[in-house]
Specification:
By secondary structure, the protein is an alpha/beta fold. The protein has two domains: 30 residues; 131 residues, Glutaredoxin (3-Layer(aba) Sandwich). The chain has five helices and seven strands, in the order αβββαβαβαββα. The strands form two sheets. It has a five-stranded mixed β-sheet with strand order 5-4-3-6-7. The protein has a two-stranded antiparallel sheet with strand order 1-2. A hairpin with a 7-residue loop joins strand 1 and strand 2. The N and C termini lie far apart (81 Å).
């Protein structure tokens, strides 16, 4: 083959080789779990965050050791968080201890939002930079976790809580954790 024909086909050959390597790489690669993702059965990550309007008070997972609790990551700008809010108020009325963690939200916005719709949380911690969300393996907001008295994650729900989810999944687990 003459050199000009080889030069003409070189880009096509290089492209074909890249496609072959890409297909082989995708076929042999395994999905990677994010380094900080938490799963049911894992110890809850060490979390230490300032409490919203708490005058220096902090929420720490260590301070809850010995009793079960629920963590709900939310934001005032989140539509699904607004959709689940009524269910959170119902859960609060049943005395389920919920810690709210604001995810990348401004304190003034959260204070205003909870002032308008009601505050179901016994404490609201601020995750301004999203680091706690990363540690917990958050994929977005809202997300809810239940942690048992030994600090083990026992339940994780991605998305808005509904009455059905609370009734069929969350409350039976909560009752079993509090009867131990």
């Amino acid at each position: 083959m003459e050199k000009s024909k080889i030069k003409a086909f070189t880009p096509f050959i290089v492209f074909a080789l890249l496609v072959v390597f890409l297909v082989i790489g995708l076929h042999h690669s395994k999905p990677q779990v994010p380094k900080f993702a938490q799963h049911i059965g894992d110890t809850a990550p060490v979390t230490d965050l300032p409490i919203l309007n708490g005058n220096g008070a902090r929420f720490t997972t260590a301070s809850w050791h010995g009793r079960p609790y629920m963590i709900n990551f939310f934001a005032s700008w989140c539509g699904d968080c607004k959709a689940e809010h009524e269910e959170l108020m119902t859960l609060a009325a049943s005395h389920l201890p919920m810690i709210g963690i604001t995810f990348k939200d401004k304190a003034d916005n959260v204070t205003s939002y909870l002032g308008r719709v009601g505050d179901p949380f016994i404490a609201v911690a601020q995750d301004d930079n999203g680091r706690a969300g990363i540690d917990w393996g958050l994929t977005g907001v809202p997300e809810t976790f239940v942690v048992d008295a030994q600090g083990i994650i026992r339940w994780h729900h991605i998305g808005a809580l509904t009455d059905d989810i609370a009734r069929d999944e969350l409350m039976p687990l909560w009752e079993s954790l509090t009867q131990q």
